[in-house]
Backbone:
């Protein structure tokens, strides 16, 4: 989806975190270092002042590590 549609979904109740976990699992199963990528996203979001998002990124990383 476009980045604008993604942002709209994140800002409305239409956002479903399960899609993120599914995408993470797919990437992991295809050999991508998705935990590293999510860690970088977390760093970026926190630096932009969105520290409240850190727990979500931590949960995604923990989920990947459990696969």
Residues:
């Amino acid at each position: 989806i476009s980045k604008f549609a993604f942002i709209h979904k994140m800002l409305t109740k239409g956002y479903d975190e399960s899609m993120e976990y599914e995408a993470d699992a797919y990437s992991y199963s295809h050999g991508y270092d998705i935990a590293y990528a999510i860690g970088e996203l977390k760093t970026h979001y926190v630096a932009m002042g969105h520290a409240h998002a850190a727990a979500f990124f931590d949960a995604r990383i923990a989920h990947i590590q459990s696969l």
Observations:
- The longest helix spans residues 34-47.
